[in-house]
Specification:
Blueprint lengths: L1 H12 L1 H8 L8 H9 L4 H19 L6 H11 L1 H4 L4 H11 L38 E11 L2 E10 L5 E7 L5 H17 L7 E4 L8 H9 L3 E4 L9 H13 L9 H17 L11 H18 L1
Parallel strand pairs: 1-4, 4-5
Antiparallel strand pairs: 1-2, 2-3
Helix pairs in contact: 1-2, 4-7, 5-7, 8-9
InterPro entries: HTH-like_dom, Integrase_cat-core, RNaseH-like_sf, RNaseH_sf, Transpos_IS3, Transposase_IS3/IS150/IS904
Protein name: Mobile element protein
GO molecular function: nucleic acid binding
Length: 307
């Protein structure tokens, strides 16, 4: 630390004047000791720390500069064990502090959408139990707002509860029912293309009128999907979808100003691809959603072959 202090100020004051100023303090050091230290070869720990810090910086920048200690620790131990072996969490925390980087923090805010009347809504089939034994059993959906310089933009996500993948999404500059239905159509088309059966799936949302429209209901019914809604004004009844909105805002939307619909749509597309394919999710063992989905498919196929 003393050597670092001298290095920081040597160009302005010179080494010897700084050393003289430190005499009589707990930070005193001889000029010869300073130069001997500078000639000393860095320790193995220092060299490893320097290399780790470069990797941490690269990982941080490659992941929307949003990873905190837990996700960074898991990412390093997933992808870089061949270079560093198992790295302790405290090491990651120490080096991130030295780099002055930290995880993104979510804001506590929740926009409101127009709600359908209770008598128009199906019952709540989920009852805050956001879990399933496999993919295409439970999807959750929600809408949120994005402020831009050109006015409000609106976004819908549909998420598979099992592997946390965003299976459908849409961004528009209106709140018509197609905002939600386009996201649903995207999800259904992707499942049809992959040959995955969605019949009997439960689709859970809040009571937003977009999700309760006749055309949305018809689209669900055509694929034998069962609708479920939470109670009015209670975000806990759609907590997983609300949490994804919060992540989306914290990691992407709240960190810059947006010009309008096209920019938000383009960057949301890029963020969704990263979220599904690369981002580590604590709820699924710090793995990306597509990895968990692919693992389930492979295990299921193996079981069918064995049978």
């Amino acid at each position: 630390m003393i050597v670092d202090f001298i290095d920081e100020h040597r160009d302005e004051f010179g080494v010897e004047p700084i050393v003289r100023a430190l005499q009589g303090t707990a930070a005193r050091i001889a000029v010869s000791s300073y130069y001997a230290f500078k000639k000393r070869r860095p320790s193995a720990r220092s060299r490893r720390d320097a290399e780790l810090m470069r990797v941490i910086s690269d990982v941080y920048e490659a992941n929307y500069s949003c990873y905190g200690v837990r996700k960074m620790w898991n990412e390093i131990n997933r992808e870089y064990t061949d270079r560093f072996g198992q790295v302790a969490r405290c090491t990651i925390e120490r080096l991130m502090k030295q780099l002055s980087i930290e995880g993104v923090r979510r804001r506590k805010k929740r926009p409101k959408t127009a709600s359908a009347r209770a008598e128009e809504c199906p019952e709540d089939l989920v009852e805050r139990e956001f879990s399933s034994e496999g993919p295409n059993q439970l999807w959750v959906a929600d809408i949120t707002y994005v402020p831009t310089e050109s006015g409000w933009v609106y976004k819908t996500f549909i998420v598979d509860v099992f592997h946390r993948e965003i299976v459908g999404w849409q961004v528009t500059n209106h709140m018509r029912e197609s905002l939600a239905r386009d996201a649903l159509t995207m999800a259904l088309a992707a499942k049809f293309r992959a040959g995955e059966d969605v019949s009997g799936l439960v689709h859970h949302s809040d009571r937003g009128v977009q999700f309760k429209s006749i055309r949305y209901g018809e689209t669900l019914a055509e694929s034998n999907i069962i609708a479920s809604v939470g109670s009015r004004g209670d975000s806990f009844d759609n907590a997983m979808a609300e949490a994804l909105n919060s992540v989306y805002k914290a990691e992407l939307i709240d960190r810059q100003r947006w010009s309008g619909l096209i920019e938000v749509m383009a960057e949301t597309s890029r963020w969704v691809a990263w979220y599904n394919q690369r981002r580590l999710h604590s709820g699924i063992g710090y793995r990306p959603p597509v990895e968990v989905h692919a693992e389930w498919i492979n295990q299921h196929r193996s079981a069918l072959v064995a049978a």
